[in-house]
DNA sequence: GAAATTTGATTAACATGTTAAGTTATCCGG
DNA sequence: CCGGATAACTTAACATGTTAATCAAATTTC
């Protein structure tokens, strides 16, 4: 009906029919990254409201959670366990410190390093949020099945390990020996 | 500077020993959200360099990929299939349009709706990136195992479905006793 | 032991995630 | 018709993801 519809001049398609382009790629919605993204979002959707009601984002929660497992921890190590990039962590720590949920000091032995620990206020917050989080986690486990959940985590872990080997293997794909 | 070290006044711990706090929660690094996050990151780490070398982010790629499967698509539907929130999509479409990778027009029947399609330039870009992406995907499949990969995706899909049921079920949990 | 390099952390700049508010266009009951 | 309610985006505002640059402190090298 309308004049020009088919913007792709190189295509021999006429207009009118919702013709899919022929780019031979995997069904998009079933790609592994999309599957993982959707699954994770489905999980986090359960937790976010509770965290938010306590004034915490997912990442802030991860950091505080990680801090409850140690006395003090260095920034780099914290980034590793909370799975955050340095810049993100820097910003969040600045905010958490301003809210008195954590405490920092500089390592005596190495003035470059920062040591972080949770404050008593932060600990109280964790203790306030934990029951709900645990309840949600229990509900998820129940709905999906504890057995299956454990299996899923095993498979995810193995996927990680499989890909870790690729990290460097593909580096020389262009150079061939550099 | 080096004066006080133990900031948590309520804790009876001395300093020196890396004593973990006692907050009875699941091992942090093995939580389902973390497992999914790490797995997805391990996967995307493989693709990002290639996408980046073509000037595309992961999300921009998702959008263009989704557009190759249709002639035109409405913004809301595109958000659904590319799994992006409206605001993110709005910004990205603005950018992609400015780069002439997509084309938009307003639906004649409903002036609120926008119809999006990929441009020939966008299509060429897809065709330039696709081979490398497919090769990476094939390598991942090979390393992890095609059988296992399919099984993993099935399990992720079932996890989604399990949690979809929770969405509304937990709504009234707060008003019951708060 | 001073210069060069490396390391730990932060800052900068840009893109996206997330929720809330705003805009314009449809729909709908009176 | 008309005005309120909805719907489809879009903007706004703030937080994080991501890469590059910066900066100070530690390590290595000559």
From TrEMBL, chains A, B:
According to its UniProt entry, the protein's GO biological process terms are: negative regulation of DNA-templated transcription; response to stress
Q: Name one Pfam family in it.
A: MarR_2
Note the PROSITE patterns from the entry. HTH_MARR_2
Regions of compositional bias (Basic and acidic residues) in chain numbering: 12-27
Q: Name the InterPro entries on file.
A: HpaR/FarR (IPR012712), HTH_MarR-typ (IPR000835), MarR/SlyA-like (IPR039422), WH-like_DNA-bd_sf (IPR036388), WH_DNA-bd_sf (IPR036390)
Gene3D superfamilies, A to Z: Winged helix-like DNA-binding domain superfamily/Winged helix DNA-binding domain
Q: Give the Gene Ontology MF terms in alphabetical order.
A: DNA binding; DNA-binding transcription factor activity
Chain positions covered by the region annotation Disordered? 1-27
Highest taxon listed in the record's lineage: Bacteria
Q: Which residues form the HTH marR-type domain?
A: 29-161
| Coiled coil residues, start to end | none
SUPFAM superfamilies attached here? Winged helix' DNA-binding domain
What this protein is called in its record is: Homoprotocatechuate degradation operon regulator HpaR
Phylogenetic placement of the source organism: Bacteria, Pseudomonadati, Pseudomonadota, Alphaproteobacteria, Hyphomicrobiales
